[in-house]
Amino acid sequence: MSYAYLFKYIIIGDTGVGKSCLLLQFTDKRFQPVHDLTIGVEFGARMITIDNKPIKLQIWDTAGQESFRSITRSYYRGAAGALLVYDITRRETFNHLASWLEDARQHANANMTIMLIGNKCDLAHRRAVSTEEGEQFAKEHGLIFMEASAKTAQNVEEAFIQTATTIYMKIQDGVFDVSNESYGIKVGYGGGIAGPSGGRDGSSSQVGGCCS
Ligand SMILES: Nc1nc2c(ncn2[C@@H]2O[C@H](COP(=O)(O)OP(=O)(O)OP(=O)(O)O)[C@@H](O)[C@H]2O)c(=O)[nH]1
Ligand SMILES: [Mg+2]
């Protein structure tokens, strides 16, 4: 399937916060109740539509465990968007956000769009981080913010799509040189400047199905 643009995303955050579950909910509309520890990096993809244009999201789901941190760092480069995830029921995952941002600042391009996600908002009775704290942190660091649940699917679509909308608007504003793929953006048919080979979707390792 052809696309106007392809955006690369990375999902980061502590182990167990629900990164893989958010991806699975977005690509397959399923929830995995068991913690299937990610080893290294996994991959998912899905089509969305923004401004009537087909956009392909190519998503790298990284392992949160400390021992994989150096592998994760090698995926920041070439990402247009990042979902930085914490678990609203575990304060330490919120406390570690600054160190994740530090990694992003060092290894990602300066125009990467970062969406902060307070996940597991279905577990309100076990909440350890207030919504206001999440909002405040996001505001201080120039991030977009949403609370979400990979279990109920609340705000999952919204988080991925809002991130893409922000990237799309940055492209319209001329923030990126889209011919330079190191920004994590590829132009296909109907995008800005369609290249001679642009637009063909040759990906075969797609985890999720396509929608819309
Ligand atoms: N109640 C609830 N549980 C969730 C939610 N998201 C994830 N979980 C559970 O949290 C655990 C960890 O989820 P994963 O998605 O595997 O976590 P991860 O961030 O990918 O962890 P690593 O791969 O080790 O970095 C699993 O048991 C999930 O079922 C959610 O929104 N609500
Ligand atoms: Mg995982």
Automatic annotation (TrEMBL):
GO terms for molecular function: GTP binding; GTPase activity. SUPFAM superfamilies: P-loop containing nucleoside triphosphate hydrolases. GO terms for cellular component: endoplasmic reticulum membrane; Golgi membrane. PROSITE patterns: RAB, RAS, RHO. It is found in: Endoplasmic reticulum membrane; Golgi apparatus membrane. It comes from the Eukaryota. Keywords: Golgi apparatus, GTP-binding, Lipoprotein, Membrane, Nucleotide-binding, Prenylation. Belongs to the small GTPase superfamily. Rab family. This is Ras-related protein RABB1c. It comes from Canna indica (Indian-shot).
